[in-house]
Amino acid sequence: MVCFIWLLFLVFSTTFVCAESDDKLVSLNCQSENHGVFGQNTLLKCSATCKTQEMEIVSLVWRRAGQRKPLVIHSKGREESRTEDRFQLTQKQWTGTDIDVSFLIKHTKRTDEGQYECILVTDSGEDKAVISLKVTANYAKPEMNSIPEKDIKDDDKVTIFCNASGGFPKGMIHWFDQIGTNWTRSAELTEVETQDKLISLFSKFTLRASSSFTVYKCSVLNNKGEEEDSAEFILQFKQQQLGTGTPEDDKNTKAIVAVSVVIGALVVGLLVLVLVRQWRSRREYTGHFHLEFAQIGLSDCFTEKLHLLW
Ligand SMILES: *[C@@H]1O[C@H](CO)[C@@H](O)[C@H](O)[C@H]1NC(C)=O
Ligand SMILES: *[C@@H]1O[C@H](CO)[C@@H](O)[C@H](O)[C@H]1NC(C)=O
Q1: Residues 248-260: what's their mean pLDDT?
Q2: pTM for the whole thing?
Q3: Which CATH number fits domain 23-136: 1.20.1440.230, 3.50.50.60, 2.60.40.10, 3.40.190.10?
Q4: Ligand 1 mean position, distance from CA 143 (Å)
Q5: Where are the transmembrane segments (predicted)?
């Protein structure tokens, strides 16, 4: 009986302590720095814990720091409301000692970057956390073109463009020719901010055309200097100008020459073989005749003439 009373007291006291809304009992544990990628889903991870007992969430609010209007709000007994369908709570369980209260941003935009507040009220206490989000965007595969577009001749002045859009923060564009020479210093880079707060890069490289250097490559790098994508461009020379050509063309001509040499050698070999065989059989034949004529006893003069005829 004493034991039971003591147990009752214990349960009561802990409930009481937690219900006293001692903030230290209920706490939000969030990842304070978050990174999102444009167009993808971003999860701002947070969990609510109560050290001593099971709690029930009375209300949960996620909002932009410094703004009153919640992006999403859950309150007990009411329907969840959100300002945009992109903003969601992942958890559907509202009681426990460790509750996931993460905030999901779908199709992350550049403008989602900033500070967020998570405000939690439970039957056992409340807490608040500030979370920051940075959003980066990957550049699309660069697109290339040239002016003039085609019928280029040796020594012509040609400008090649390499444009990469949809990235953030500002990246770089590097230029290389077919043997890997770095032409980045000779190129000119400009950037333009688009409506959705992303950056488009425009790079322009002007050169004196040479028909032995027809392939140019540009690669787009993020602000950490990591390559995100690259593209290759082949200058369209006037047809007869393509002598030395690209490495690919070189390989093709080499292959054609090799095949021709082999076929040529085979034909010559066969011809020689046929000639030798003919010559041999002829010699055997006349030799045979010689013998027969001699045996019959014809004059040497006659066999000589016959030989000539053959
Ligand atoms: C790249 O941008 C330049 C300058 O705006 C433009 O002249 C060129 O046509 C663009 N090239 C491609 C492939 O979009
Ligand atoms: C190419 O040149 C640029 C500008 O000088 C430099 O930043 C870059 O590191 C070089 N890239 C390579 C692969 O050498």
Answers
A1: 65
A2: 0.67
A3: 2.60.40.10
A4: 8
A5: 255-276
